[in-house]
Design brief:
- With about 240 residues, the chain is an alpha/beta fold.
- The protein contains nine helices and seven strands.
- The chain has two domains: about 140 residues, Rossmann fold, CATH 3.40.50; about 80 residues, no CATH class.
- The longest helix has 18 residues.
- Keywords: Phosphoprotein.
Length: about 240
């Protein structure tokens, strides 16, 4: 149980319609777009959500309360999410469900080796997939009683969150980015573009990642991404 969280003094019982009722989910994710998707999935499932956008912020949260579920992105601006997973997997009291999340599915084994109970592959948009991954990691007493309807409802995050992420990367690229910053841009934009079905931006992020992995100069790829970012920033969204 997460009795150290002051918001969970009276934990409601999960139901077949809201199987995550009573759970508090800490999402450690730097993408506003990805976090908005998780927020909507939690809302449909009955769970509460708190967000941290980096490892430092997550550790500050965890000094105050212990969530029922932690969903940790593996690529964060200040380090590898697998490090936080390793810390939480051995802490007491342990988080009841500890999940890794990434658009790079080859990182699943690294996350499981670090102590994760499961892996969510981005984009996470299907309600049934989200619920099943969390429920599979929870102890029996936290499971809803009786049969449960498995739906295929999909959620669509607000596009304003996508624009916020684009603005974030524009800030990263504003000054001449170093090698670590370029690696972060490639990782962040790859997952974001895939989630938002932005094929041109996804291809550019993939090209940058390939050049970085090969140890080659990526000046032209970075310039291509900078141009795409500016193009998307110029697109106005009617609010």
């Amino acid at each position: 149980m997460n009795g150290t969280d002051p918001l969970t003094a009276n934990i409601p019982t999960p139901t077949s319609a809201r199987p995550l009722l009573g759970l508090t989910v800490l999402v450690v994710e730097d993408s506003r777009f990805a976090c908005e998707a998780i927020r909507l999935l939690c809302l449909r499932s009955g769970a509460r959500i708190r967000r941290a956008d980096c490892l430092h912020s997550a550790r500050r949260h965890l000094q105050v309360y212990r969530p029922s579920v932690a969903i940790i992105d593996l690529g964060l601006p200040d380090g590898n999410g697998a490090d936080l997973i390793a810390e939480l997997s051995t802490s007491q009291p342990r988080v009841e469900a500890l999940l890794a999340m990434s658009g790079d599915t080859h990182l699943e084994q690294e996350a499981l080796s670090a102590g994760a109970d499961g892996f969510l592959a981005k984009p996470v948009t299907t309600l049934s997939t989200f619920q099943e991954c969390i429920l599979a990691a929870l102890p029996p007493e936290r499971q809803p009683a009786g049969p449960r309807v498995i739906g295929d409802e999909q959620i669509t995050p607000d596009r304003i969150a996508y624009q916020d992420d684009i603005s974030h990367i524009a800030d990263v690229l504003e000054d001449q980015p170093n090698e670590r910053a370029l690696d972060y841009v490639a990782q962040f934009l790859g997952g974001l573009a895939r989630s938002a079905e932005d094929s041109a931006l996804e291809a550019a992020a993939s090209a940058l990642a390939q050049k970085r992995a090969a140890g080659m100069s990526a000046a032209s790829e970075a310039a291509m991404i900078a141009g795409l970012i500016q193009s998307r920033l110029s697109q106005k969204i009617a609010i």
